Amino acid sequence: MNTLALRTGLAALALSLSFMAQAQTPRYAPAPKELLQFVLKMNPAPEGVKTYYSCAWLDLNSDGVEEAILWSPSNSIGRLFEGGNRYDGFAVYQKAGAGYKLIGGGLYARDADQIAVLKTRNGKWLDLASYKFYSGDKKNQRDNYWYRCRFGGRGYASEENIMKSVPKVRINSAKAPSYLL
User: Fold this and answer.
1) Are 179 and 53 in contact (CB under 8 A)?
2) pLDDT in tens, 5-43
């Protein structure tokens, strides 16, 4: 193998690894007006209640365009993203033309510290994980665990796929500002 081909291959590998690392580091910024309009059309905010949201941006499918992960932070009374039962949820949105489309909704998470980006992929899409827990009396207490959310063709879906380890790359609510809708 010649030296130029080896250098080119190593440079491509380094760029690929660099891109993967970037894709797993969230950027925190408000959602654009078009995305908020889409979110509110699907999930109207409760009237008369101050509703907040937080937003992290990541390129989940390595196409060079960041997807948005939105959730209602713990300081928000109004909840936009119901995860079922008494869980707060989060949703994932992808840019589509001049607007956005939902590619994962109703995924469980209590707050952003319990949403993680994994290194594994399903196709070109990074897997996500969320911490699922139950509250209640000791008689009805269930185990707490991390579970995987995989992209399945049309969007992210939660799986009852319990993870054996705690994810390292988490979306951090302490770094994520809250915005009033």
Assistant:
1) yes
2) 444 444 433 334 434 444 468 899 999 999 999 988 877
- Contact indicator for 67, 126 with CB cutoff of 8 Å: no
pTM of the model: 0.75
- Phi (first) and psi of residue 43, to 5 degrees: -135, 80
Indicate whether 106 pLDDT > 80: no
* Distance from chain centroid for Cα 40: 18
The tens digit of pLDDT for each residue in 164-175 reads 888 877 787 677
Q: Provide the token pair at 32.
A: 């654009």
99-108 vs 115-122, strand pairing mode: unpaired
Contact 51, 72 (CB under 8 A): yes
Of the CA atoms within 13 Å of residue 61, those in its CB half-sphere come to: 17
Give the residue from 152, 176, 153, 181 showing the smallest Cα distance to 73. 176
Report the candidate in 149, 171, 146 with the shortest Cα–Cα distance to residue 158: 149
Structure-block tokens of residue 46: 């409760």
If 0-12 CB within 10 Å is exposed, 13-18 middle and 19+ buried, where does residue 4 land?
A: exposed
